[in-house]
Each structure stands twice: as C-alpha cells, then as structure tokens.
Automatic annotation (TrEMBL):
Keywords: Membrane, Transmembrane, Transmembrane helix
Name the record gives this protein: Amino acid transporter transmembrane domain-containing protein
Ranges annotated as spanning the membrane: 15-37
Keyword Transmembrane helix carried by entry: yes
Length: 68
C-alpha cells in the first residue's frame, strides 16, 4: 500500500508511469523541439531583414543627409 492513492481513472502504477513518460516526451519534443525550431527560424528571419548588427552605432549622419 502506498501513501499516495492513484486517481480513479488510472488502474495501476504502470499506467501512471506511462502517462508521466508521455508528458515528459511531449514537453521535450513539443516544448524544446518545436519551440527551439520556431525561435531559430524567427531569429534567422530577423537577421535576414535587419542584419545581425546595425551598420554603425553613433556615427555622424552622411553629408548628403545634412545638406539641403
């Protein structure tokens, strides 16, 4: 007899371990796998549109932009 009782919808501890293993695999595949893939594709898209770094920080504006 265990101190913790099983939920009424699970017939045995083996079923509880199967459910927990399924949840663990789901979190690893969907959470880290698809989440990491989505993050990387978003990062790559942002690098393609903006660039990895700005061309120049705190640079004076070009001469053609200041002369009117």
């Amino acid at each position: 007899n265990s101190a913790e009782k099983l939920p009424f919808f699970l017939p045995s501890w083996t079923a509880m371990y199967v459910v927990n293993t399924f949840i663990l695999v789901w979190v690893l595949v969907v959470g880290f796998g698809l989440g990491g893939w989505a993050s990387m594709t978003n990062f790559i898209k942002q690098v393609d549109t903006f660039g990895l770094f700005a061309k120049c920080y705190q640079c004076p504006p070009p001469a053609s932009a200041t002369a009117h």
